[in-house]
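Changelog note: in this version the structure field was regenerated for every chain. One regenerated record is shown below for reference.
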Amino acid sequence: MAKKRKNARERRLEQKIQQGYISPEALLKKECSKNVKKAAAIEAPAAVPEAPLSEHRADVSPLTIRRGESVPLQRMDYAAPIRIRVAALSPLALGSGGGDVNVDSDIVRDETGLPYFPAKRLKGLLYESGLEVAEMAELSGLSLFTRADLDALFQHGCLGETQLIFSNLELEEAAEMAADWRYLEERYPAIFQAQDVFETYASLRYQTKIDSATGTAADNSLRNLRVLDTPVRKGAEVQPLTFAGVLEVQPGSERAFTILALAARNLSQAGFKRTRGFGRIACTFEQEGRDILLPLVEKALEDAEKGALA
């Protein structure tokens, strides 16, 4: 059945192209599946506000970006995987470590052109965020967890009993979108290319250095970098670009979940240009569509305060 639908779609596309009834731009909007239409419906980068999110969405904070109700601690399943969501609250530059003659610093994307959040990058960010939490707890006299606890959990410089398995975080419905884009790119390579898909989500930002002596741009100082544009407009709504993936904790425990939740709650930035308004993010944990981050954080802080007062 799936093959019949695909053949019918091929014939329909071929007829419209051959008869000249539709342009490549119109074809992109009319003949893609509903998931591809969602990607194509995002407005051009110029229409996306370039100001830091704090100037036009100051009400957004990590704990407000949750899905559904929270899971009570007594019903939390520490053997089940965690669904991680990272919402980009300002333009995000997840560097790929490469560039070309046109772009000094590019960002990561898959073979179809869809951006993603690398698993290794997220693991490193959570570890760094956990270090900050451990240092803040030590300075404030709260007993949350120590650096030794964090190193053992992430197996950083030592071997621990717990193993963390991260998946790459992808755009929601990325699998369906990737299948549609791959079909179009393979069937009509002259019209649809991975770079075109990628530019739906990204744009170039430029910067230069000012010569203090002349007050003008210094010679040979113009640089650029590619960033993911977010928030994005979907119809009448403005939403953060959101990546989702899975984290497995083997073996899982309340202690391991709590350390990860505290690190995720503290995590607020990623990528390049963090001090220039770029890379504001919010991280959430879920199981079966319900939030588990907030109850873990609240319980940890409550226990720590009780210990400090005892």
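Spot check on this record: The mean pLDDT is 79. Residues 119-140 form the longest helix (22 residues).
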